[in-house]
Amino acid sequence: MPKHFFVLGLDPLRQSYLERLPDASDYRFHPLFTLEEVVNPATFDYDAMLEKARRTLEAFPEPITGIIAHWDFPSSVLLAHLSAMFGLRAASLESVLKCEHKYWSRLEQQKLMPEWTPGFCAVDPFAEKPLQQLTIDFPFWLKPIKAHSSYLGFRIDNAEQFDDALKKIRGAVHSCGDPFNQALAHISVPNEVEAVDGNWCIAEQILTGKQCGIEGSLLDGEYRVHGIVDTVKDSKNLSFTRYEYPSVWPQYAQEKICEAGEKLLRHMGFDNSPFGIEFFWDERCDSFRILEINTRISQSHCDQFIKVHGVSNHRVPIDLALGRVPDLSQYHGDYQTAAKFMLRRYRDTVLESVPKQAQIESVERDFPDSKIVISADEGCRLSEQSMPDSYSFEIANIWLGAQDQQQLLDTYHQLADALAFRFADGGEPEAFQFKCVRY
User: Fold this and answer.
1) Is the Cβ–Cβ distance between 316 and 297 less than 8 Å?
2) Which of 53, 107, 232, 435 has fewest C-beta within 10 Å?
3) Can you tell me the distance from the alpha carbon of 329 to that of 417, in angstroms, rounded to the nearest whole number?
4) pLDDT tens per residue, the chain (439 residues)?
5) CA separation (Å) from 55 to 58, 63, 81, 90, 372?
6) In sequence order, what are the residues at sequence separation of 6 or more whose Cβ sits closer than 8 angstroms to the Cβ of residue 131?
7) Does domain 119-205 have CATH number 3.30.1490?
8) Contact, 178 vs 171, CB < 8 A?
9) Burial 231-244 (b: 16+ CB within 10 A, else e)
10) Which sign, positive or negative, has the C-alpha torsion 14, 19, 20, 22?
11) Domain ranges of the chain
């Protein structure tokens, strides 16, 4: 009998990843909410979504093996909540919220690993004198307690920038903060966290160096890392430019963050779930810092795992649901390295035209195994995108594989140049001149 999985926000692209699993015929994958409902909705009612999902799962006539999430909140929290309701293997709701609440998570990190935790403080954006709440110096990052994809995240260098950022945050923070508060209401929140709800912000010390993320899992306490992905930002360290797999960090640095991840997740009480943890390493002083904890696999990494291992990281939550320790080392893909690139513009303007489907298909044929997804809407201002980065605008996502990093970067530049965009200001997408990184 096939095993049934419900996937939060399943769409044709992620469906294709699941269908490429070696044993895909053993499973049936069912959508739970549309992509639009769980990715960047303008606002939503968490409790209403939870109830709708509960009714859908209760009405399903066959046994359910598991629920899969590869998107951020609300998917990641709904996964834990629904799994507890239906007796499915997953991390506890409390541990997931503890990891995803930026301030709560920082408090726990500080208790356990103070040397790995940047300076931080909570900020109520609606306070009468918010500047007086700051206990760290400029510059710092200001972020909502709950958001994703750098939405409403600002680098703050002075009091004027702080005030400007708070004006923008006040007008939009409730879209995610209110639903997050609904989720928090289902657990007991510690007194030291209770006042800092989803509509607050956190100010955090600027982290320097290289950024890298581990993806892994825990199964009944057994910890395993299945991949390490480099998160590369632009020269100003503001916007993401690519997720490259496998990491090029030196082995000892990779081992350090893997050990730190295990220590951290055990402290959080997190188990029976995939995870992703982002770190910074400043090689100049050989210091490490924790950036954030994600309580799911990342859909941004699926194609890279397929290219390098021949199987998507969806293998991991499926194995966990079946009580199997995930091990991607037994799989082998066609490439030694792979990346998801984010093609961007930094100046706001109207995107007058994007590459037509025929052109995209032609470019994909010219660059075998490439995948191009346009992420901005033709005829719209770039700033009208849902939950944009605070400093740039994503135009397209491009996935590529190669046999070494130089080939990967060269191929990206060639492919990006082959895509025809037209902007009202006459400009072009940002031409990042990536360089190989070697240690």
Assistant:
1) yes
2) 435
3) 35
4) 999 999 999 999 999 999 999 999 999 999 999 999 998 777 899 999 999 999 999 999 999 999 999 999 999 999 999 999 999 999 999 999 999 999 999 999 999 999 999 999 999 999 999 999 999 999 999 999 998 767 899 999 999 999 999 999 999 999 999 999 999 999 999 999 999 999 999 999 999 999 999 999 999 999 999 999 999 988 777 888 999 999 999 999 999 999 999 999 999 999 999 999 999 999 999 999 999 999 999 999 999 999 999 999 999 999 999 999 999 999 999 999 999 999 999 999 999 999 999 999 999 999 999 999 999 999 999 998 876 788 899 999 999 999 999 999 999 999 999 999 999 999 988 866 677 777 7
5) 5, 15, 14, 19, 36
6) 159, 162, 163
7) yes
8) no
9) bbebeeebbbbbbb
10) positive
11) 3-97, 119-205, 210-423
Query: Could you say which of 3.40.50.20, 3.20.80.10, 3.40.50.300, 1.10.4080.10 is the CATH number of the domain covering 3-97?
Result: 3.40.50.20
Taking the whole predicted model, whether its pTM rises above 0.90 is answered as yes
> Tell me, what amino acid is at 30?
H
Unique residue bearing structure tokens 């397929």: 306
Q: What is the number of other CB atoms lying within 10 angstroms of the CB of residue 337?
A: 23
Q: Contact, 98 vs 104, CB < 8 A?
A: yes
CB 349 within 8 A of CB 382: yes
CA distance 412 to 239: 18
- Say how many CA atoms lie within 13 Å of 247 toward its Cβ: 26
